[in-house]
Amino acid sequence: MESNFRKALKEVMGVDKEKEQKEEVKLSEAVETKNEETTQKINQTESNSAVEMKLESVKDTESKANKYSNQNSFAQPTTGAETAIITKATKVEGSLNTDSNIVIAGEMIGDVTSTNSVSTTGRILGGVTCKNFEGNNAKIEGDIKVENILIIKNNCDILGDISAKRIELSGRVKGNIVQSGEVFIAKEAYIIGNVTASTISIEKGAIIQGLIKIKTD
Fold first, then answer.
1. What digits encode the pLDDT tens for the residues 45-65?
2. Structural domain of residue 114, as residue ranges?
3. How far is CA 61 from CA 49, 96, 113, in A?
4. Overall pTM surpassing 0.70 (yes/no)
5. Are residues 150 and 200 in the same domain?
6. Long-range contacts of range 127-133, CB-CB < 8 Å, 24 or more positions apart?
7. How many domains does the chain have?
């Protein structure tokens, strides 16, 4: 009888052990499945983050590119001409005569003549003669003669006479606006000198210390 009892006990223990092993296997599989799901979620999250970072980077790059393009679009060649650039750290002494567009970010001591456009954010000690002109945060001591459009933006100081077919002025000018076609004077503008043009538009707030003459011929 004792032998039978031991045999029965072993069988019961064997069944319990086998059952326990099966449960451990199931638990292990469940843990592995859960880990795989967690890993997939993490990978997906990292992938989404990477995509978002990439999109943000692209947007940031496009924004910077658009900002640079807007700042320099005036001086971009419109007739296939090349563009010469005088960088911020560069100082040029002597007259400059060219058929290229010119971007002046540095300092120019001497007259500038171009059959195309001139754009500056720097300093020019000399006269400027060109087809189109734009000054932004620039300082110019000399007369500016422009064939078509002349734009003087905020924080720009001009000491000299200016003339063009069309003038848009929101900076400061100490000199006369002579023999011009259309003149638009923004509210930020400050002019010490006479204004002579065929058409003059003046925003409220602009300051003009001088005479205004409308050309009739």
1. 544 544 344 434 434 434 443
2. 77-214
3. 18, 34, 35
4. no
5. yes
6. 127/160, 130/102, 132/74, 133/164
7. 2
